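Repro:
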Amino acid sequence: MTVTIERGATSRSRVGWSGLLWLTWRQHRALLLTSILLTLAGIALAWSMTGLLAARGEPTLPILGFDTMADPARWVLLAEQGFGVFIAVFWAAPLISLEYERRTNLLAWSQDVSPLRWLAGKLALLVPMAVVLAVAVGFTGKAVSDYYNEMEFNFSIEFMAAFEASPAIQAGYVLFGFALGLVLSALTRRTVLSMALTLGIYAVVRFALTPLRLHYLPTLRGFRPFNGPGGGETRNDDLWVDSGYLNSTGEKVDFPQACLGLPPGPPDAAKKCMLENGITGTFHDYQPATRVPMLQLIEFGIFAVLAAALFVVLRRVMRRA
């Protein structure tokens, strides 16, 4: 048998970036369009509710004409808190594992397109879109929160969601969630498992860092001695961190047991009792409200660094794929 090879046979050239981006759009356009529409609908709802509140001059709205009142701004900000985990679980976590489960990785990661190049093509489209949506969500949340404060509805920045109503923070959460979902997707190669792990680990990291955010910068201390003028006056929108009693050496001490349950007496009996037990006054540690943008920027930096570390791990995993 004679085998002939035709001259000028066509050979596949390397797939360009435009081809990878087009393929990514074709594969994920339903998810992308659905996410964009839901996000825009949520933003439109938030702004419309803000307009209604402005017209009513009240922080609450009736639900479906019933007497029950809702606080729409809190619902808006709570929805904002879920945006990062939504991207992590539904965009990132299935991205690589589905290729393994469908065995399409054997075709997609051919000699023309390496796994890293295939993934880069995905991320070049998906990550910027996710970040843009996150910034829009963060901007909307901040606008709603600021509006509440301008109307003197006492919407404190200490409320977890109000602090996170920031375009930068939302972008950091999305970057971290995206990287986390991809790493777990590449390691487990199981979609449901990677989605569950992404949800759990994302929540653990978010809630673990929340108590630390008021300590990103050294706190200020106000001291009010029992004998003398007070100091360190705070504003209503400053962030409370800690408070208690100090002794003559400036150390934090507990309230003396001897001063509990004092019988009725002069108004300053409790103060006199505490002075006799070595307590010289009260203190309060706080973060000034003017530091909030810096605290938010630091939190963005923390999640950006975590995301960068996870992308390094992902690169190593994909090089072995």
